[in-house]
Amino acid sequence: MAIIRLTALFLALSMNAVLISCGTHNKAVLDNKGKPLISGDFYYILPSTGGSIGLATYRNIFPNCATSIVQHSEKNHGHPVVFIPKSDGSINESSNLLFQFYLPNFWSNFECQPVASTYWIVYNTKIDGQYLLSIGSDHGRRQHFFQILKSTGHNSYKIMYCPDGRGCKNVGVIIDSDGVHRLALTDTSFDVTFVRG
Predict the structure, then answer these.
(1) β-sheet bridge partners, residue 36
(2) What angle do CA 91, 95, 96 make, to 5 degrees?
């Protein structure tokens, strides 16, 4: 009888541990008001250090066309982003997501043709050995998934780059020789919040 009770207790504790683990993995990503992010809606990504996330030109790649993802210093919300889950339609912590800028009528401000894709990718351009984030397409050579992980602040998160859904690396900010804060793969991440557009 004692063995049966111990076995039942062990199974109950094991099931509870599994449920806790699953609940943590499937926890919804929340916006700045504590509401779950919705696939298909657009959101502004605001760094905890100030400014906003948007696009800027980069002198070595389409110098007249904004394709580089940067941290703007202006007190606006930057450019809105749509999050597209790989599966099941939910935007959860540690789930694989595509990030896409929502940019209607944006290209009229630049001397270039609109870029074919506004999805976030990691391009082959480096600054001080660190790969920069930009928009565009690498013609299907890999899937540029990102993940959102909870950080320490209230409704604060960090962004990870997970090519093909694995081998994740931090997305952080580096400062180039022109003083531009560019998003890149770095050793440390930076905290952001999401504001619904």
Answers:
(1) 30
(2) 105
